Amino acid sequence: MIRNNQNKKRFVWFLTGLCFLLLAACSSGVEEEQTLLKTPYEQTEFLMGTYVTLRVYDEGKEAVLEQGFKRVEELADKITVNEPDSEIDKINELAGKEAVELSDEVYPLVEAAAEYSEVSDGGFDYTVGPITDLWRIGFDDARKPEQSEIDAALNLVDFSKVEFDTENKSVFLTEEGMALDLGAIAKGYIADEIRKLFEDSGVTTAIIDLGGNVIVMGGSPTREGEAWNVGIQDPLSERGETVGKTAQKNRSIVTSGIYERYLEVDGEIYHHLMNPQTGYPFDNEIAGVSIISERSVDGDALSTVVFGLGLEKGLEYVNNREDIEAVFITKDKEVYTSNGMKDNFELTNEEYTWVNQ
Question: What is the pLDDT of residue 8?
Fold first, then answer.
């Protein structure tokens, strides 16, 4: 009897230990391998003035598409001007009068815009709103303003005149008539937020495309998990036409160029990328620039920064940073790549010449 009791105790301890090991394995984050689809769950909607496409390749994660679009709309409503619940609108309306407290979602975006304005010495300036409001490029009432109007608006463009209250998460434009314009950084920020939502929902493999802002998550299921072949937009053609491709995994690819929004006056083309120091569109040899980075918000802002720097200074800037790469395309159909792209870019359009290959 004593021997039997001892055997029973040993058996109980064995079961307890086995359960402990199973619980430990479960709590350690070990999960079953996710099944990936060759054909993704996919949805496209027209939002923020562009076509937004979300593709999810994880089996059983179709519902996250709807959540993704809901998130895009929520953030866009808070950031876009002329929207009923726009926090940026409220900041602009109360310029010179009082500070505006922002939500936890919008305040970091405005901080990031301020940071890039400072880093670029005003080449990127998120207080360019008075200038973009004059030109209205991309809208039906777009026009070329009078020089006197531009001169007056330039007096209101100065990122150093924005005051932040970190404790209350408030922003104050110190002069009446000042206006924020986050168009050069907002899509990148929203794309990053969608990626966070996907990751929190267990998505491992996806493509997030916010019309020029692309994030590739994981590797391509059709290529056994290898990097995606991402096309580099042809800035002199319609969206979808490319000049080449690059293999990327878990990266953001953002393109800024003259191909989408522009105004033609007396035979002259004015694109939408405004120089906050002159009040006119940037005028240099660049037709488009694509930035490859980890975060899309960085790529979005930097695509404008280096576009404004021009080809030579832009290439130098990118090559001096280890966290980003770039592809520059000129109006003369020449392609220049940053140092880290020379082994990761393939020219596919015979109309273009890769100069620094």
Answer: 39
d(C-alpha 330, C-alpha 152), whole Å: 32
Helix (H) or strand (E) holding 207: strand 206-210
From residue 68, alpha-carbon distances to 59, 201, 210, 255, 327 in Å are: 16, 10, 12, 22, 29
Regions of the chain with pLDDT less than 70: 1-33, 259
- What is the distance between the alpha carbons of residues 75 and 263, in angstroms, rounded to a whole number? 28
3-class SS letters over 103-160: CCCCHHHHHHHHHHHHHCCCCCCCCCHHHHHHHCCCCCCCCCCCHHHHHHHHCCCCHH
Phi (first) and psi of residue 288, to 5 degrees: -165, 155
CA 284 vs CA 119, 131, 136, 328: distances in Å: 21, 19, 21, 12
Tell whether pTM > 0.85: yes
SS3 label, residue 173: strand
Report d(CA 175, CA 295) in Å as an integer.
Answer: 32
Q: Which of 215, 250, 202 is nearest to 35 (CA)?
A: 202
Locus of tokens 């998120």: 126
Q: What's the confidence (pLDDT) of residue 63?
A: 97
Locate 212 and state its tokens.
Answer: 């020029």
3 state SS of 44: strand
Q: Residues in the chain, how many?
A: 357
Q: What is the pLDDT of residue 120?
A: 85
CA distance 198 to 74: 16
Per-residue CA distances from 42 to 56, 62, 81, 240, 242 (Å): 7, 8, 29, 17, 22
Helix, strand or coil, per DSSP, at residue 212: coil
pLDDT value at residue 33: 64
